Amino acid sequence: MMIVIIARMQVDPLYLNDFRENINFLIKASQEEKGNISYSLYQDVNQANLFIMIEKWMGEEAIEAHKRTSHLTQFIDYTHNALLEPLHVEKFYAIGDF
């Protein structure tokens, strides 16, 4: 069953340019992982430092493998300084084929 992860990130404005570089590396590496369906970043229309990452995975096994990758663990370490609040992550099961 497909699992969707939504991660909310409010970036310290001083880190915005650096954040974009770091997250682009994370996105490219994650999209190449086995079991990844999509890995996309969205920026809030009204608040330039608010981002949502929407990830789609083939299942829990793929997510567990993703959690162990160096690109994710390094990015999570980076967020401790770059975000104004802790990374907020939610996980959902996809319902239907749409």
UniProtKB/TrEMBL annotation:
Pfam entry (one): ABM
Entry keyword annotation includes Oxidoreductase: yes
Alphabetical keyword list: Monooxygenase, Oxidoreductase
One GO MF term attached to the UniProt entry: monooxygenase activity
InterPro entries in the cross-refs: ABM_dom (IPR007138), AI-2_Isomerase_LsrG (IPR050744), Dimeric_a/b-barrel (IPR011008)
EC category: oxidoreductase
Enzyme Commission number(s) of this protein: 1.-.-.-
Name of protein: Quinol monooxygenase
Organism encoding this protein: Gracilibacillus xinjiangensis
